[in-house]
Amino acid sequence: MTMTYDPENIFARILRGDIPNKTVAETAHTLAFHDIAPHAPHHVLVIPKGPYVDFADFAAHASVEEITDFHRTAAQICEGLGEGYRTISNSGGHGGQEVPHYHLHILGGRPLGPMLTR
Ligand code: 5GP
Fold first, then answer.
1. Domain assignment of residue 95, given as a range
2. Do residues 29 and 98 make contact, with C-beta atoms less than 8 angstroms apart?
3. Residues 33, 38, 40, 45: what is their CA dihedral angle, to the nearest 10 degrees?
4. Does residue 69 form part of some domain?
5. Atom number, ligand 1, closest to the C-alpha of residue 100
6. 1 in a domain, yes or no?
7. Tens digit of pLDDT for each residue in 68-92?
8. 101 an active-site residue?
9. Which amino acids bring their CB within 6 angstroms of ligand 1?
10. CATH number of the CATH domain containing 67
């Protein structure tokens, strides 16, 4: 079940310009910016501008234009990471999601090790 969107979450505030960010790419529907606490030399967050809580909310409810724009923007960032990269999207408590606005982490710049510790 999808949570109700909280318009005061930190990424909503970044989108409104209340909080600064280091922008990597911006389009009509998508913003990409550097993570404030990077887990790898390259750690970019890609977010839709619309109010979607997580991956499932975005995939189920966003328009075709928003979904295409989001993925094409993310793909352009990934293309610059020739040695490989990892994309992660956390959701809810079990997923370890801290910010309840859908975002894709793009990580790279070093070997990232196993996907999860067992
Ligand atoms: P989550 O755990 O929700 O998947 O990831 C949230 C990410 O947002 C974390 O990696 C965290 O470092 C990042 N983050 C939290 N607050 C800010 C902020 O104000 N600015 C930026 N650029 N990143 C943030």
1. 10-108
2. no
3. -30
4. yes
5. 3
6. no
7. 999 999 999 999 999 999 999 999 9
8. no
9. 10, 19, 21, 33-37, 45, 90, 96-99
10. 3.30.428.10
